[in-house]
């Protein structure tokens, strides 16, 4: 991958935001929630699972345990039964209860509003904290999920594979007001066009900015010619 100046990468990142904001004007967090606690729980459940699937179990979950205090007192086996349709349901059920106990014991039942306090809660990492901060509060960074990791690397905005390092790279290229929306745009674009295995590069609005897409589309005619 050729090296580019910091200024050219910043321009590329900003152009990505500009183009995708037009393409996906409704890009946002798609986890159903009514308050920060519900979003925190839903984000934990969304690990290695689609938002749509999570949204099928959270109505019952929040009906039975609507607050940190209620969830902290929940029987983990009962929570497991509610979230059973999701992958890793045992670990996720325990994480919800333990996280809620921390919120009650350390923060008096109030969901914390800073990265430092959030990542001290059991089961909460930077990605989960960034979703919450960017959606409900302020001060979050870039949400680096599998879509953001894949697309930002294809676009040449980072060479890193570690999510925390990818986040640092992207935050250095984007102004703070674009940190939160960038992650949501990556999710929408990953679902629509930039598939992990078969990206639709030929119809991608970012093709002129994407080193990986340029290589793929340049190679395609040669492959067809050999096959013909």
Short key terms for the protein model shown above:
228 residues, mainly alpha, Endonuclease Iii, domain 2, Endonuclease III, domain 1, 2 domains, 12 helices, 61% helix, disordered C terminus
Compact description:
This protein is an all-alpha fold. The chain has helices at residues 6-23, 36-45, 51-64, 68-72, 76-83, 89-107, 115-118, 126-136, 146-154, 163-173, 179-192, 211-227.
Uncertain runs with pLDDT below 50, 5 residues or more? Answer: 222-228
Q: CATH top level of the largest domain?
A: Mainly Alpha
Q: In CATH terms, what is the fold-level topology of the largest domain?
A: Endonuclease III, domain 1
Count of distinct strands: 0
Q: Assign the CATH superfamily of the largest domain.
A: Hypothetical protein, domain 2
Q: How many domains in all? A: 2
List the helices and strands and how they pair.
Blueprint: H1 6-23, H2 36-45, H3 51-64, H4 68-72, H5 76-83, H6 89-107, H7 115-118, H8 126-136, H9 146-154, H10 163-173, H11 179-192, H12 211-227
Structure description:
This protein starts with 5 loop residues before the first helix and ends with a helix. Helix content is 61%, strand content 0%. With 228 residues, it is mainly alpha-helical.
């Amino acid at each position: 991958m050729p090296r580019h100046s910091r200024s050219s990468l910043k321009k590329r990142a900003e152009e990505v935001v500009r183009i995708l904001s037009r393409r996906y004007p409704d890009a946002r967090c798609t986890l159903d929630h009514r308050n920060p606690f519900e979003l925190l729980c839903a984000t934990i459940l969304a690990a290695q699972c689609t938002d749509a699937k999570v949204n099928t179990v959270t109505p019952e979950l929040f009906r039975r345990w609507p607050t940190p205090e209620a969830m902290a007192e929940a029987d983990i086996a009962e929570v497991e039964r509610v979230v059973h349709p999701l992958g890793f349901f045992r670990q996720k059920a325990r994480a919800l209860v333990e996280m809620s106990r921390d919120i009650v014991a350390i923060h008096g039942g109030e969901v914390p509003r800073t990265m430092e306090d959030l990542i001290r809660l059991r089961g909460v990492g930077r990605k989960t904290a960034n979703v919450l901060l960017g959606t409900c509060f302020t001060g979050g960074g870039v949400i680096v999920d599998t879509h953001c990791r894949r697309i930002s690397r294809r676009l040449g905005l980072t060479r890193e594979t570690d999510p925390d390092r990818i986040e640092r790279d992207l935050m250095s290229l984007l102004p703070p007001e674009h940190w939160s929306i960038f992650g949501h745009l990556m999710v929408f674009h990953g679902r629509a066009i930039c598939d992990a295995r078969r990206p639709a590069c030929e119809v991608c609005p970012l093709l002129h900015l994407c080193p990986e897409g340029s290589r793929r589309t340049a190679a395609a005619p040669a492959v067809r010619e050999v096959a013909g």
